[in-house]
Amino acid sequence: MNVIDIFHAPRGFVFQDFETRGIVTDHGEVTLRYPVLTAEIIRDLCGTVRRNRLQALSAYSVERIVDVIGKAVELWTDPDYEERLLAESLIPAITGYDATMTRIELKRYMRMFRRRELLRFLDDELSSPRILDEYRPNKSGGYTRLYGPDLTFHVFSSNVPGIPVWSMTMSLLTKSAIIGKSSFDEPLMPVLFARSLAQIDPDLADALAVVPWRGGTVELEDMAIGEANAVIAYGSSHTTEAIRPRVGTGKPFLSYGARIGFSLIGREALRADTHVQTVHRMAVDVATYDQQSCLAPQTIFVERGGVISPAQTAELLARELDSQQRKYPRSVPSDEESLAIRRARSETEMKALFMAAPAPGGSAAQNDPQAPFVIESPQGTNWTVLYFPNTDSLTSLATPLNRTINLVAVDQLENALPALKPYRAWLQTCAIAASSSRLFTLAQHVGEYGIDRICPIGEMNRAKSGWHHDGGFNILDLVRAVDIERNTDRYSDTFDIDYE
């Protein structure tokens, strides 16, 4: 029986006691091993990675850190790389995500962290990456250097494999040591990434520790929060908000809770020559990781006036989701999630009873129906399309996820905007399928409603390097700036014996 350690600790750090958990994969049973933790162990881990950072990572140039991360990521481009094979085997078994989809999405995701992408990211956010290494001239005539936290505590989420890699990379670029709490629902990817870093640069990897524990274990969390100089938390809004008041004043706290994505489909994307590809890309956004990503769409607004109507679009989307189900089967939802989907279906059907029925003359999708309708998977809750004839009939911008999507008909895409207002605090990604002549006008409007990312449909789950996550900065929100004011260097020159 294979035993896989789902933790990473610096070299020489020894855990005394362990627990195990068995899972079944396509290749047999595997045992996951993880340490029994106490607050004292977390304190010792924090102290160890902080000391290791001081001895090595703090003296690295940012370019060297980029090189290490880039080389580690290049290992993942090899289909036979051991850690990649482990991820492709175990992550589907742990999470329930389709194995083929997981393989494709992980490969695509890891490419975001290649050297050239990291350099592009740094150049986008910083005036000069070397400002993390040394004092650099600033526009006021002085000099500025950015300092990252000595230690950052990360709370990793489990909804999308690979997200911890982003979080860890951002901290490493600021030269921060890391104590990471992984989730038992997906504890593997941050550990595998740490191991890849260790293969390239063991000294850098010694500034990292990743261990799983149950969410809400207050004594462990409080120890990590107290020891760290910054906190980054991913997860549900409940998780992030429970941590927020425990983070000390003045300590950076970056929280990434639940968010809602939506799409705007213009009539030009539903022409005879464009609608097939448009609907396919809509389905890809819905099916990828079963909408568990905060980037995924929960509502799609479809403009009337195309060759196919919004109702016909709903029917075609349902067919495409059925195709996606055959190609990439959805993970098995919990009983609670299945109940929520069935409730959403029933509520939409009940609403239809109190509104005008579709016009006669064939199926609802052959007309412009004035009442909602539901198109659901033949088996269970595999996928669901909830159609609404206007924004007034829309029950909620949010859905129960698990490939459950609202499709709302609008006369003009701008008519969708009022429906966004009540959800301003939760909006994140907006996908747009419209002509370039309308793109920036639409972007100007939706940008006022709290979103932080606009992308093409079909790419909602594939954020690019340089994205300002939740509208903030990945590097700048973690660092503090120190300025040497103008003329300080000239004043220092006066103490030179040869100064004139």
Low-confidence stretches: 358-362
Query: Sheet with the most strands?
Result: 7 strands, mixed
Give the number of helices.
Answer: 16
End-to-end C-alpha gap? 78 Å
Strand content: 15-25%
- Computed over alpha carbons, the radius of gyration is 25 Å
Q: Total strand count, please?
A: 18
- The helicity comes to 25-40%
C-alpha geometry: globular
Q: Largest sheet, order of strands side by side? A: 13-14-15-12-11-16-17
Supply the helix-strand structural class: alpha/beta
Average residue pLDDT: 93
Q: What does this molecule look like?
A:
- There is one protein chain.
- With 500 residues, the chain is α/β, with parallel strands linked by helices.
- Helices cover 37% and strands 19% of the residues.
- The protein contains 16 helices and 18 strands.
- The protein has helices spanning 39-55, 62-75, 82-95, 99-110, 115-125, 163-173, 189-200, 202-205, 218-227, 237-243, 275-287, 310-327, 335-353, 417-420, 436-446, 488-493; strands at 2-5, 18-25, 28-35, 136-137, 143-147, 151-155, 177-182, 208-212, 230-234, 253-256, 260-265, 297-303, 373-376, 384-388, 404-410, 427-433, 453-455, 480-484.
- The strands form four sheets. Strands 13-14-15-12-11-16-17 form a seven-stranded mixed sheet, sandwiched between helices.
- Strand 6 (151-155), helix 6 (163-173) and strand 7 form a beta-alpha-beta unit.
- Helix 2 (62-75) packs antiparallel against helix 5 and helix 11 packs across helix 12.
- It is globular, with a radius of gyration of 25 Å.
